[in-house]
Design brief:
Elements (H helix, E strand, L loop, with lengths): L16 E6 L5 E4 L4 E8 L2 E9 L7 E3 L1 E8 L9 E6 L6 E2 L12 E2 L11 E5 L1 H22 L1
Parallel strand pairs: 4-5
Antiparallel strand pairs: 1-2, 1-6, 2-3, 3-4, 7-10, 8-9
């Protein structure tokens, strides 16, 4: 049996609220309302949005064992997703992969026309607004902690 630290029950976490968290890869995360905290992870000198899950969400995947409510809410104009839509790298048109296609097809199609195309080069658009918001939270709290230690 694992011991969890100072973390509210899963049903007490507030969707869109920022928490100071303790887990494997994140220091801060905004609760996504689905059991996860989205924050900024750094790996191989890259920083990107990543989700870690509440301790009670899953016995195997729950890694957030501490979450302190910072009483900061995500602004309504920022989507609460790590990625936005997926587009074709060349045409910049939206694409999807959620239906069967003809034999030999790759599964991707343009969502505006339902046209299947072997040449689609899908790329996921990062949620830059959420990244910038969380980056600002991190910087503000680092400055506040620096003032307290001086």
């Amino acid at each position: 049996m694992r011991d969890k630290g100072n973390i509210p029950n899963l049903d007490q976490c507030i969707k869109g609220r920022v928490y100071k968290i303790h887990c494997r890869n994140l220091a801060y995360g905004v609760y996504d309302g689905k059991g996860g905290f989205i924050g900024i992870r750094e790996k191989f000198n890259q920083r990107y949005l990543f989700t870690e899950y509440h301790w009670d969400f899953s016995e195997h995947y729950g890694t957030v064992g501490e979450a302190i409510d910072l009483t900061i809410d995500l602004p309504n104009d920022i989507p609460l997703e790590t990625y936005l839509e997926t587009i074709d790298e060349v045409s910049k048109r939206p694409v999807s992969f959620d239906r069967p296609v003809k034999e030999g097809g790759r599964g991707w199609f343009f969502t505006d026309t339902n046209e299947e195309n072997q040449e689609i080069r899908p790329i996921a658009l990062h949620n830059d607004k959420l990244f910038q918001f969380l980056e600002l939270v991190e910087k503000d709290h680092a400055r506040a902690n620096q003032k307290h230690s001086d």
